[in-house]
Amino acid sequence: MGLPRGRRRRTPGLRREEVAQLSAVGVTWYTWLEQARPIHVSAQVLDAVARALLLDPSERSHLFALAAVSDPAPGRTCPSVSPSLRLMLEQLEPYPACVQNSRYDVLAYNRGFARMIVNLDALPYEDRNCMWLGFTNADWQAALVDLEESQRAMVAKFRAAMAGHLAEPAWTTLLHRLQRVSPAFRTFWEEHEVLNATDQLKRIRNPRVGMLRLHHTSLWLGPRQGPRIVTYVPADDESRERLERLHALELADA
Hints:
Order of helices and strands: HHHHHEEHHHHHHEEEH
Distance between the termini: 37 Å
Radius of gyration: 20 Å
Helix content: 40-55%
Low-confidence stretches: none
Mean pLDDT: 87
Shape: globular
Strand order of the largest sheet: 2-1-5-4-3
Number of strands: 5
Strand content: 5-15%
């Protein structure tokens, strides 16, 4: 974060005064914000806090929702996704690829991934979450050949990953949203299964080019259960040709 080294930390993370410094606000005022005192919080200050804490799009959206303030930059890209990482995603085309966290939020993606199942560009940021789409979006569900198997596995992986994030609002918010709207999610969640993230073969019906058989691979960017690059590599020549055709169609539409 560019902060000078100081005394030894008893717990990981930024101290309150450091967040205040990075957000360019007073320590007392920031303390009142943490304590939920009845103070007026401007969008500019919330934006500064979000940038200081490197919030991803879902976390940023949750912050502004808690403050009941309109986000002045709802389309802001995730600060943890560097330009070089975005260039890497582009270079993987025509193969679909994205950056995803363990909560299944899609933080960045290339053109192949943008249209592999549904038009991600047309969705609001808070809905660009693979598990949310897998349980609430009819087009996404229709594209997954092994829908129930995929849903059950996602829920088990989500439960395993959530063990390290039990107190984080973004995780509990997603959990409650899914429990509220999806009976299927509630059923799988109550099974209490846990599963580590694994590579696998995906079968996807693309509405433009037909059936795709793809090897799903995760390339971890940090500690396991953290952010990862997810790639979809064709499992056969037919799928490779269809991915190339889909890429050509996307370039023609651009």
